[in-house]
Amino acid sequence: MVATLLVSGPACSRDTSIAPPTATAATEVARAAAARTTVAAFNEALRSGDRSAAAAVGTAGTADLLGDAVENVAALDLVDVSLRFVEDRSSVSSRERQDLGQRAWIGTVAVAYRIRGWDERITEVETPMTFVPGADGQLIAGIGGVGGRTPLWLTGPVTVLTEGRTLVVARAGEAARYAQMATRAIADVAAVLPEWTGRLVIEVPASPRGLAEALDAPQERYANIAAVTAAVDGSVERNSPVHVFINPAVFEPLGPRAAQVVISHESTHVATAGTTAAVPGWLLEGFADYVALVRSGIPVRTAAAQILAEVRRDGPPSRLPTADDLAPTSPGLGATYEEAWLANRFIAQRYGEEKLVVFYRAVAGGTAAAEAFRRVLGTTEEAFVRAWSADLRKLAADLAG
Question: In sequence order, what are the beta bridge partners of 161?
Fold first, then answer.
Protein backbone atom coordinates (compact mmCIF):
# COMPACT_ATOMS: atom_id res chain seq x y z
CA MET A 1 0.00 0.00 0.00
CA VAL A 2 1.16 3.57 -0.69
CA ALA A 3 0.35 6.10 2.00
CA THR A 4 -0.29 9.73 1.02
CA LEU A 5 0.88 12.51 3.28
CA LEU A 6 -0.42 16.06 2.68
CA VAL A 7 2.27 18.63 3.38
CA SER A 8 1.66 22.39 3.21
CA GLY A 9 3.95 25.37 3.45
CA PRO A 10 6.40 27.25 1.28
CA ALA A 11 8.69 24.27 0.75
CA CYS A 12 6.01 21.87 -0.49
CA SER A 13 2.47 22.34 -1.68
CA ARG A 14 1.62 18.93 -3.22
CA ASP A 15 0.81 15.39 -2.10
CA THR A 16 3.83 13.25 -1.34
CA SER A 17 3.59 9.47 -1.57
CA ILE A 18 5.51 7.56 1.05
CA ALA A 19 5.90 3.81 0.86
CA PRO A 20 5.44 1.85 4.11
CA PRO A 21 8.63 0.66 5.74
CA THR A 22 10.08 -2.56 4.41
CA ALA A 23 11.73 -5.28 6.43
CA THR A 24 15.51 -5.36 6.47
CA ALA A 25 17.36 -8.54 5.54
CA ALA A 26 18.09 -9.20 9.21
CA THR A 27 14.43 -8.74 10.10
CA GLU A 28 13.35 -11.12 7.34
CA VAL A 29 15.77 -13.78 8.56
CA ALA A 30 14.54 -13.40 12.12
CA ARG A 31 10.87 -13.49 11.26
CA ALA A 32 11.37 -16.48 8.96
CA ALA A 33 13.06 -18.34 11.81
CA ALA A 34 10.18 -17.44 14.12
CA ALA A 35 7.63 -18.53 11.51
CA ARG A 36 9.46 -21.82 11.11
CA THR A 37 9.03 -22.42 14.83
CA THR A 38 5.34 -21.47 14.63
CA VAL A 39 4.67 -23.81 11.72
CA ALA A 40 6.51 -26.62 13.49
CA ALA A 41 4.28 -26.11 16.55
CA PHE A 42 1.16 -26.12 14.35
CA ASN A 43 2.39 -29.30 12.68
CA GLU A 44 2.85 -30.99 16.05
CA ALA A 45 -0.63 -29.91 17.14
CA LEU A 46 -2.11 -31.43 13.98
CA ARG A 47 -0.25 -34.67 14.54
CA SER A 48 -1.15 -34.94 18.21
CA GLY A 49 -4.74 -33.77 17.85
CA ASP A 50 -4.28 -30.84 20.23
CA ARG A 51 -6.81 -28.18 19.26
CA SER A 52 -5.71 -25.76 21.98
CA ALA A 53 -2.09 -25.94 20.92
CA ALA A 54 -3.08 -25.25 17.31
CA ALA A 55 -5.18 -22.25 18.29
CA ALA A 56 -2.29 -20.87 20.36
CA VAL A 57 -0.09 -20.31 17.28
CA GLY A 58 -2.71 -18.14 15.55
CA THR A 59 -4.18 -14.72 16.05
CA ALA A 60 -7.57 -14.23 17.68
CA GLY A 61 -9.08 -14.24 14.21
CA THR A 62 -7.56 -17.56 13.16
CA ALA A 63 -7.64 -19.54 16.42
CA ASP A 64 -10.84 -21.34 15.43
CA LEU A 65 -9.55 -21.94 11.89
CA LEU A 66 -6.41 -23.65 13.19
CA GLY A 67 -8.40 -25.63 15.74
CA ASP A 68 -10.79 -26.76 13.03
CA ALA A 69 -7.83 -28.07 11.03
CA VAL A 70 -7.02 -30.38 13.94
CA GLU A 71 -10.60 -31.68 13.91
CA ASN A 72 -10.44 -32.15 10.14
CA VAL A 73 -7.28 -34.25 10.37
CA ALA A 74 -9.12 -36.64 12.66
CA ALA A 75 -12.36 -36.63 10.66
CA LEU A 76 -10.54 -37.38 7.40
CA ASP A 77 -8.11 -39.81 9.02
CA LEU A 78 -5.19 -37.94 7.48
CA VAL A 79 -1.81 -39.61 7.81
CA ASP A 80 1.73 -38.56 6.89
CA VAL A 81 0.79 -35.01 7.85
CA SER A 82 3.71 -32.61 7.61
CA LEU A 83 3.93 -28.80 7.52
CA ARG A 84 7.25 -27.08 6.94
CA PHE A 85 8.03 -23.39 6.47
CA VAL A 86 9.76 -22.91 3.12
CA GLU A 87 10.33 -19.24 2.35
CA ASP A 88 9.43 -15.65 3.06
CA ARG A 89 7.39 -14.22 0.18
CA SER A 90 7.10 -10.88 1.99
CA SER A 91 4.49 -8.90 0.07
CA VAL A 92 0.83 -8.74 1.02
CA SER A 93 -2.06 -6.93 -0.63
CA SER A 94 -3.20 -3.46 0.36
CA ARG A 95 -6.39 -4.91 1.81
CA GLU A 96 -4.45 -7.40 3.92
CA ARG A 97 -2.29 -4.58 5.24
CA GLN A 98 -5.40 -2.67 6.20
CA ASP A 99 -6.88 -5.69 7.94
CA LEU A 100 -3.74 -7.10 9.54
CA GLY A 101 -1.38 -4.14 9.86
CA GLN A 102 1.80 -2.93 8.22
CA ARG A 103 3.86 -5.79 9.63
CA ALA A 104 1.83 -8.59 8.05
CA TRP A 105 3.71 -10.75 5.57
CA ILE A 106 3.26 -13.96 3.58
CA GLY A 107 5.29 -17.12 3.71
CA THR A 108 5.15 -20.37 1.78
CA VAL A 109 4.54 -23.56 3.74
CA ALA A 110 5.07 -27.05 2.31
CA VAL A 111 2.06 -29.18 3.26
CA ALA A 112 2.03 -32.96 2.93
CA TYR A 113 -0.73 -35.42 3.81
CA ARG A 114 -2.60 -38.52 2.65
CA ILE A 115 -6.22 -39.57 3.17
CA ARG A 116 -5.86 -43.07 4.58
CA GLY A 117 -7.65 -45.63 2.45
CA TRP A 118 -8.46 -43.18 -0.35
CA ASP A 119 -5.21 -41.72 -1.70
CA GLU A 120 -2.51 -44.02 -2.99
CA ARG A 121 0.30 -41.61 -2.34
CA ILE A 122 1.09 -38.52 -0.30
CA THR A 123 -0.13 -35.17 -1.60
CA GLU A 124 2.51 -32.45 -1.44
CA VAL A 125 1.61 -28.82 -2.09
CA GLU A 126 2.93 -25.36 -1.23
CA THR A 127 0.39 -23.22 0.60
CA PRO A 128 0.55 -19.47 1.29
CA MET A 129 0.24 -18.48 4.95
CA THR A 130 0.03 -14.97 6.35
CA PHE A 131 1.99 -14.12 9.50
CA VAL A 132 2.00 -11.22 11.92
CA PRO A 133 4.31 -10.54 14.89
CA GLY A 134 3.07 -11.73 18.27
CA ALA A 135 4.34 -11.40 21.82
CA ASP A 136 6.58 -14.46 21.50
CA GLY A 137 7.27 -14.68 17.77
CA GLN A 138 5.19 -14.92 14.62
CA LEU A 139 1.51 -15.87 14.59
CA ILE A 140 -0.50 -17.40 11.76
CA ALA A 141 -2.98 -14.74 10.60
CA GLY A 142 -4.38 -16.51 7.56
CA ILE A 143 -4.13 -19.58 5.34
CA GLY A 144 -4.50 -19.50 1.56
CA GLY A 145 -4.14 -16.99 -1.23
CA VAL A 146 -2.68 -16.72 -4.69
CA GLY A 147 0.46 -18.51 -5.73
CA GLY A 148 -0.12 -21.91 -4.14
CA ARG A 149 -2.59 -24.70 -3.42
CA THR A 150 -4.59 -24.65 -0.22
CA PRO A 151 -6.02 -28.02 0.91
CA LEU A 152 -9.70 -27.84 1.77
CA TRP A 153 -9.14 -29.21 5.25
CA LEU A 154 -7.02 -26.15 6.09
CA THR A 155 -9.75 -23.66 5.18
CA GLY A 156 -12.36 -24.28 7.89
CA PRO A 157 -14.62 -26.99 9.32
CA VAL A 158 -15.54 -29.75 6.87
CA THR A 159 -18.26 -32.36 6.78
CA VAL A 160 -16.89 -35.80 5.94
CA LEU A 161 -19.17 -38.53 4.64
CA THR A 162 -18.22 -41.95 3.28
CA GLU A 163 -20.56 -44.25 1.44
CA GLY A 164 -19.23 -47.37 -0.24
CA ARG A 165 -16.51 -46.34 -2.68
CA THR A 166 -17.18 -42.62 -2.30
CA LEU A 167 -15.86 -39.95 0.06
CA VAL A 168 -17.29 -36.43 0.29
CA VAL A 169 -15.39 -33.59 1.95
CA ALA A 170 -17.67 -30.56 2.04
CA ARG A 171 -17.47 -26.99 3.26
CA ALA A 172 -20.65 -26.05 1.41
CA GLY A 173 -23.90 -27.74 0.46
CA GLU A 174 -25.28 -30.98 1.85
CA ALA A 175 -22.71 -33.74 2.02
CA ALA A 176 -25.46 -36.38 1.92
CA ARG A 177 -26.66 -35.05 -1.44
CA TYR A 178 -23.19 -35.33 -2.91
CA ALA A 179 -22.74 -38.81 -1.46
CA GLN A 180 -25.97 -39.99 -3.10
CA MET A 181 -24.94 -38.55 -6.45
CA ALA A 182 -21.48 -40.07 -6.12
CA THR A 183 -22.97 -43.51 -5.51
CA ARG A 184 -25.15 -43.13 -8.60
CA ALA A 185 -22.10 -41.95 -10.55
CA ILE A 186 -20.22 -45.12 -9.62
CA ALA A 187 -23.12 -47.11 -11.10
CA ASP A 188 -23.21 -44.96 -14.26
CA VAL A 189 -19.51 -45.51 -14.85
CA ALA A 190 -19.78 -49.24 -14.12
CA ALA A 191 -22.51 -49.60 -16.76
CA VAL A 192 -20.00 -48.61 -19.46
CA LEU A 193 -16.69 -49.45 -17.76
CA PRO A 194 -17.49 -52.45 -15.50
CA GLU A 195 -13.83 -53.19 -14.84
CA TRP A 196 -13.29 -49.93 -12.94
CA THR A 197 -13.12 -50.64 -9.20
CA GLY A 198 -11.54 -47.40 -8.02
CA ARG A 199 -12.75 -44.90 -5.46
CA LEU A 200 -14.21 -41.45 -5.83
CA VAL A 201 -13.36 -38.41 -3.68
CA ILE A 202 -15.43 -35.23 -4.01
CA GLU A 203 -14.31 -31.94 -2.45
CA VAL A 204 -16.77 -29.07 -2.06
CA PRO A 205 -15.11 -25.70 -1.23
CA ALA A 206 -17.07 -22.98 0.50
CA SER A 207 -16.90 -20.61 -2.47
CA PRO A 208 -15.47 -20.10 -5.96
CA ARG A 209 -12.50 -18.44 -4.30
CA GLY A 210 -11.94 -21.60 -2.27
CA LEU A 211 -11.99 -23.63 -5.48
CA ALA A 212 -9.46 -21.30 -7.09
CA GLU A 213 -7.15 -21.54 -4.09
CA ALA A 214 -7.44 -25.34 -3.97
CA LEU A 215 -6.40 -25.55 -7.64
CA ASP A 216 -4.01 -22.57 -7.76
CA ALA A 217 -6.01 -21.00 -10.57
CA PRO A 218 -7.46 -17.56 -11.32
CA GLN A 219 -11.01 -17.44 -9.98
CA GLU A 220 -12.40 -16.49 -13.38
CA ARG A 221 -11.02 -19.65 -14.98
CA TYR A 222 -13.78 -21.81 -13.50
CA ALA A 223 -16.44 -19.12 -13.18
CA ASN A 224 -18.80 -21.00 -15.52
CA ILE A 225 -17.75 -24.54 -14.62
CA ALA A 226 -19.81 -26.64 -12.18
CA ALA A 227 -17.02 -29.09 -11.33
CA VAL A 228 -13.51 -30.05 -12.33
CA THR A 229 -11.49 -33.23 -11.94
CA ALA A 230 -7.87 -32.57 -11.04
CA ALA A 231 -4.80 -34.00 -9.37
CA VAL A 232 -4.77 -32.57 -5.86
CA ASP A 233 -1.12 -31.61 -6.18
CA GLY A 234 -1.43 -30.35 -9.76
CA SER A 235 0.92 -32.96 -11.17
CA VAL A 236 0.40 -35.24 -14.17
CA GLU A 237 1.79 -38.37 -12.55
CA ARG A 238 -0.61 -41.31 -12.79
CA ASN A 239 -0.53 -42.25 -9.12
CA SER A 240 -1.17 -38.73 -7.83
CA PRO A 241 -4.47 -38.43 -5.91
CA VAL A 242 -7.20 -37.23 -8.28
CA HIS A 243 -10.37 -35.72 -6.79
CA VAL A 244 -13.50 -34.04 -8.12
CA PHE A 245 -13.72 -30.38 -7.05
CA ILE A 246 -17.08 -28.61 -7.03
CA ASN A 247 -17.74 -24.95 -7.83
CA PRO A 248 -20.67 -24.38 -5.44
CA ALA A 249 -21.78 -21.13 -7.08
CA VAL A 250 -22.50 -22.96 -10.35
CA PHE A 251 -23.33 -26.43 -9.05
CA GLU A 252 -25.76 -25.68 -6.22
CA PRO A 253 -28.46 -24.07 -8.40
CA LEU A 254 -28.56 -27.10 -10.75
CA GLY A 255 -31.60 -29.34 -10.77
CA PRO A 256 -31.27 -33.01 -9.74
CA ARG A 257 -30.76 -34.43 -13.23
CA ALA A 258 -28.25 -31.83 -14.36
CA ALA A 259 -26.32 -32.14 -11.10
CA GLN A 260 -26.15 -35.91 -11.48
CA VAL A 261 -24.84 -35.59 -15.02
CA VAL A 262 -22.04 -33.34 -13.75
CA ILE A 263 -20.98 -35.80 -11.04
CA SER A 264 -21.18 -38.81 -13.36
CA HIS A 265 -19.21 -36.91 -16.01
CA GLU A 266 -16.41 -36.03 -13.59
CA SER A 267 -16.41 -39.56 -12.16
CA THR A 268 -15.73 -40.84 -15.67
CA HIS A 269 -12.62 -38.66 -15.79
CA VAL A 270 -11.47 -40.24 -12.52
CA ALA A 271 -12.14 -43.76 -13.83
CA THR A 272 -10.30 -43.16 -17.11
CA ALA A 273 -7.34 -41.19 -15.68
CA GLY A 274 -8.56 -38.22 -17.68
CA THR A 275 -6.16 -35.81 -16.00
CA THR A 276 -3.12 -37.59 -17.45
CA ALA A 277 -4.36 -39.24 -20.65
CA ALA A 278 -3.32 -37.53 -23.90
CA VAL A 279 -6.80 -37.61 -25.42
CA PRO A 280 -8.27 -35.04 -27.86
CA GLY A 281 -10.72 -32.70 -26.15
CA TRP A 282 -13.77 -33.87 -28.10
CA LEU A 283 -13.12 -37.47 -27.06
CA LEU A 284 -12.14 -36.70 -23.46
CA GLU A 285 -15.16 -34.56 -22.67
CA GLY A 286 -17.59 -36.19 -25.07
CA PHE A 287 -16.92 -39.69 -23.72
CA ALA A 288 -17.44 -38.47 -20.15
CA ASP A 289 -20.76 -36.92 -21.20
CA TYR A 290 -21.71 -40.11 -23.01
CA VAL A 291 -21.24 -42.16 -19.84
CA ALA A 292 -23.17 -39.60 -17.80
CA LEU A 293 -26.08 -39.28 -20.24
CA VAL A 294 -26.56 -42.64 -21.91
CA ARG A 295 -28.74 -44.03 -19.11
CA SER A 296 -29.88 -40.75 -17.60
CA GLY A 297 -33.28 -40.66 -19.26
CA ILE A 298 -32.67 -37.08 -20.42
CA PRO A 299 -34.01 -36.65 -23.98
CA VAL A 300 -31.56 -35.66 -26.71
CA ARG A 301 -33.83 -32.70 -27.48
CA THR A 302 -33.02 -31.39 -23.98
CA ALA A 303 -29.41 -32.50 -23.59
CA ALA A 304 -28.35 -31.14 -26.99
CA ALA A 305 -30.65 -28.10 -27.23
CA GLN A 306 -27.87 -25.54 -27.75
CA ILE A 307 -25.91 -27.31 -30.47
CA LEU A 308 -29.06 -28.39 -32.34
CA ALA A 309 -30.21 -24.77 -32.40
CA GLU A 310 -26.82 -23.76 -33.83
CA VAL A 311 -27.04 -26.48 -36.48
CA ARG A 312 -30.47 -25.27 -37.55
CA ARG A 313 -29.18 -21.71 -37.76
CA ASP A 314 -25.68 -22.17 -39.18
CA GLY A 315 -25.47 -25.77 -40.36
CA PRO A 316 -23.46 -28.62 -38.79
CA PRO A 317 -19.78 -28.27 -37.81
CA SER A 318 -17.11 -29.26 -40.31
CA ARG A 319 -14.63 -30.51 -37.73
CA LEU A 320 -14.48 -32.03 -34.27
CA PRO A 321 -14.09 -29.62 -31.33
CA THR A 322 -10.52 -29.01 -30.16
CA ALA A 323 -9.13 -28.70 -26.65
CA ASP A 324 -9.12 -24.91 -27.08
CA ASP A 325 -12.80 -24.99 -28.03
CA LEU A 326 -13.48 -26.86 -24.79
CA ALA A 327 -11.33 -24.67 -22.53
CA PRO A 328 -13.22 -23.42 -19.43
CA THR A 329 -13.23 -19.80 -20.59
CA SER A 330 -14.15 -20.44 -24.24
CA PRO A 331 -17.35 -18.81 -25.56
CA GLY A 332 -20.31 -21.05 -26.33
CA LEU A 333 -18.95 -23.77 -24.08
CA GLY A 334 -22.32 -25.44 -23.47
CA ALA A 335 -22.95 -26.01 -27.17
CA THR A 336 -19.40 -27.24 -27.70
CA TYR A 337 -19.73 -29.83 -24.95
CA GLU A 338 -22.97 -31.02 -26.51
CA GLU A 339 -21.20 -31.24 -29.87
CA ALA A 340 -18.46 -33.43 -28.36
CA TRP A 341 -21.06 -35.62 -26.68
CA LEU A 342 -22.99 -36.14 -29.92
CA ALA A 343 -19.79 -37.20 -31.69
CA ASN A 344 -19.25 -39.93 -29.10
CA ARG A 345 -22.93 -40.85 -29.15
CA PHE A 346 -22.70 -41.23 -32.92
CA ILE A 347 -19.79 -43.67 -32.56
CA ALA A 348 -21.79 -45.73 -30.07
CA GLN A 349 -24.87 -45.73 -32.30
CA ARG A 350 -23.09 -46.60 -35.54
CA TYR A 351 -20.40 -48.97 -34.25
CA GLY A 352 -21.66 -50.01 -30.81
CA GLU A 353 -20.86 -48.91 -27.27
CA GLU A 354 -18.12 -51.53 -26.94
CA LYS A 355 -16.33 -50.10 -29.98
CA LEU A 356 -16.58 -46.62 -28.46
CA VAL A 357 -14.87 -47.89 -25.32
CA VAL A 358 -12.17 -49.65 -27.36
CA PHE A 359 -11.66 -46.50 -29.42
CA TYR A 360 -11.29 -44.36 -26.29
CA ARG A 361 -8.85 -46.77 -24.69
CA ALA A 362 -6.76 -46.99 -27.84
CA VAL A 363 -6.36 -43.21 -28.03
CA ALA A 364 -5.78 -42.91 -24.28
CA GLY A 365 -3.13 -45.61 -24.61
CA GLY A 366 -1.14 -43.59 -27.11
CA THR A 367 -2.67 -44.42 -30.51
CA ALA A 368 -3.21 -41.34 -32.64
CA ALA A 369 -6.88 -40.58 -33.16
CA ALA A 370 -6.50 -40.79 -36.94
CA GLU A 371 -5.01 -44.27 -36.60
CA ALA A 372 -7.70 -45.34 -34.12
CA PHE A 373 -10.41 -44.32 -36.59
CA ARG A 374 -8.87 -46.66 -39.14
CA ARG A 375 -7.87 -49.49 -36.82
CA VAL A 376 -10.88 -49.61 -34.49
CA LEU A 377 -13.73 -48.15 -36.54
CA GLY A 378 -12.57 -49.00 -40.05
CA THR A 379 -12.97 -45.47 -41.34
CA THR A 380 -11.06 -42.22 -41.58
CA GLU A 381 -11.52 -39.16 -39.41
CA GLU A 382 -12.60 -37.15 -42.44
CA ALA A 383 -15.25 -39.70 -43.42
CA PHE A 384 -16.43 -39.91 -39.82
CA VAL A 385 -16.83 -36.13 -39.58
CA ARG A 386 -18.87 -36.07 -42.79
CA ALA A 387 -21.18 -38.82 -41.57
CA TRP A 388 -21.50 -37.25 -38.11
CA SER A 389 -22.25 -33.82 -39.58
CA ALA A 390 -24.97 -35.32 -41.75
CA ASP A 391 -26.41 -37.07 -38.72
CA LEU A 392 -26.40 -33.79 -36.78
CA ARG A 393 -28.26 -32.04 -39.60
CA LYS A 394 -30.89 -34.81 -39.64
CA LEU A 395 -31.17 -34.86 -35.85
CA ALA A 396 -31.67 -31.09 -35.73
CA ALA A 397 -34.40 -31.32 -38.38
CA ASP A 398 -36.13 -34.28 -36.75
CA LEU A 399 -36.21 -32.60 -33.34
CA ALA A 400 -37.13 -29.13 -34.57
CA GLY A 401 -39.84 -27.49 -32.46
Answer: 168
